[in-house]
Amino acid sequence: MKHSPGAILVCVVFVAFLLGAPTTHAQTHALAVFIQTPAQGETFYVAPSSFLYSIYVKGWIVTSNPEPTLIKVELALLRGTELTARVEARAQPDGSFSFSVTANPDAADFPDPHTGCIECHFTSALALPRGKVIVRVTAIDPAGNRASAERAIIVDHSGTAIIPIQVVDADQPARPIAHIPVLGSARLYLWRARTSIATTDAGGLARVQVEALGQASTRYVFDVPPVIVNGVWYESVESKQVTLKPGQTLGETLTLPVRARRGQITGALRGAGDPGLTVRAIDAITGASFVTHTRTNAFAFSDLPVARYFVALDPAELAPRALQAQTIPVDLTTAPAASITLTASVASSRVVRGALRDINGAPVSFGWIEIESRVARAHPATGEFVLYDVPAHAQTLRVIAPGFWSRNIAIQNDAPLAITLAPRDELRSIAWGRGAIAIPPETIAELIGGRLVLTHGVAWSNSPGTFAFETAGATITLANARVAIERQAERAWLYVIEGTATVALDSARQTTVNAGQMIVIDSDFEHLRAVAIDPHIIRVLTDTSSVPFDFVIEPTLSAQARDLFARFGISIAQGVTFATYLLITLALVGAPLLLWGIWLRATRQNHPTG
Fold first, then answer.
1. How does DSSP classify residue 280?
2. Computed over its alpha carbons, how large is the radius of gyration of the chain?
3. Cβ-proximal residues to 492 (8 Å cutoff; 6+ apart), any chain
């Protein structure tokens, strides 16, 4: 069964109508035009930062002419009645046609042409004007018959707008809040997410620069997500919305209330009765320490800077009660309030104390003392140490200090120990002013341009002087100071024993550290804070699960004999003690037997038988 071209055209027109065909003009049974893309009313969005891209105007013609390639196809772009561009081509043998048009000819080229994105990121001879555009395709056959179709599209080149946001305290609306990041979010044309952030100035005003559409309204939602500023937790009480008209560049000022919260830690005490123990919350970054005491098996910190903490009981108070307790980490940066339980458990009440000195009597700043699996650090300023929960049977301790010969020390009683360490030959000393910097062989450091660049390990001075360090991204300048410094991984600890030191990460982040203070240094820190040198802080914040340096025994005969005696002397003493107890036991049991035997012999002699 044959179908006439007119019948075919009617069918095609009907199907196209059902599929949302474009507006057509002068369509006849002999010639008709249909546009496949773009769709009627389609919007082509161009952001200020969009890479150059092009679109296709595609479709087909229906003609009674047996040679579709003889049909001339003309593409015209109109803004209102103004013709902005026009181009001609020929239909393909199957009656199809295709034109490429650049949406943003002034944009930068796509950076990587070796990807599939080259399908759209290219330039073409035609460019779409901004705003509402008529895409008109006209077909002209050799007889001069004309047919056309149109699509109305929108080309939206977005711009920028400023939205002023005034941030205030929800509980004190007259009080503006500075340094608060304000977040504005939108979804352009329901699919392209956009966010903008600005920080409030000293007057609490944030001028948020947002992207705004040029051909449609833009709705933004503003709020303050949970944020910590100077140790205070802030978050919005409610969000605010603003709708920008097409092309609007300045929005009205919005007032955004936020609520401020300080950190809180509440806790319970288990296993220690209620002796009124000291509880410390130690900032895991700066070492700042806060103290409270237990009451009725509970404790509370009510006004803490929001940060990460270690909460610990004082081992000096637990030891006389034969107790110990684990340190509990608490992260207030995820929620400004937390509740924990500290549990005390049974431990040895034995405590071993002492101090480390070099052969000149000066304190050894970096030393580790180990008894079985218990490890303690020497105080950087005094060389003193305290070991808790020492087993009653322990009779020997080990001392390891970088730059010094290690020692085994016999513990004869629990009196404080005075331990002298001899320096190793590899311990370097760099003169500076009236003093010198000591650098042990375990340390990685070099002197560059009058500054000591410390990469890993420890260094210290035994007398005041003026010098400069570089470590952990900071420059440390000493002013007639005596210091100890250690670098582990990406951080460094500076202990100022005498004088002052200036620590600078950059021009905006610097501080002075005075005598008796310590500071942790990290290039990622927003602020630098010095705190008092406190053995409790050092114990909590530094790893005391193991000794970080090797045990190195002095190779002299006398030193070896001394250490061997310390190591094995206790075992010998224990053997002698065992032998003594054995002899006493034999004497107590054997003496009566011996006397009984003598008595039997005497009895037989006095009363001979038969």
1. E
2. 43
3. 454, 471, 472, 474, 485, 486, 520, 521, 522
Please report where in the chains the tokens 């005041």 appear, as a residue: 464
Residue corresponding to tokens 């005391």: 544
What CA–CA distance (Å, rounded) separates 19 from 33? 15
Strands 205-212 and 159-169, bridge-based pairing: antiparallel
Backbone phi and psi for residue 193, each to the nearest 5 degrees, phi listed first: -75, 140
The C-alpha atoms of residue 456 and residue 563 are separated, in whole angstroms, by 30
* Paired residues of 88 in beta bridges: 74
pLDDT of 508 reads: 87
- Write out the two tokens for 146: 């004309």
Q: Note the pTM of the prediction, 2 decimals.
A: 0.74
pLDDT for 512-546, tens place per residue? 999 999 999 998 888 899 999 999 999 898 877 78
Q: Containing H/E element for 437? A: strand 435-439
Phi, psi of 148 (to 5 degrees): -145, 160
Distance between CA atoms of residues 209 and 196, nearest Å = 7
SS3 9: helix
The CA distance from 221 to 413, in Å, is 71
pLDDT in tens, 536-595: 999 898 877 788 888 888 775 555 555 555 555 545 555 555 566 667 766 676 677 777
Tokens of residue 130, six digits:
């901004």
Residue 604 burial (10 A CB sphere; 0-12, 13-18, 19+) = exposed
If one compares 421 and 27, the residue with the highest pLDDT of the two is 421
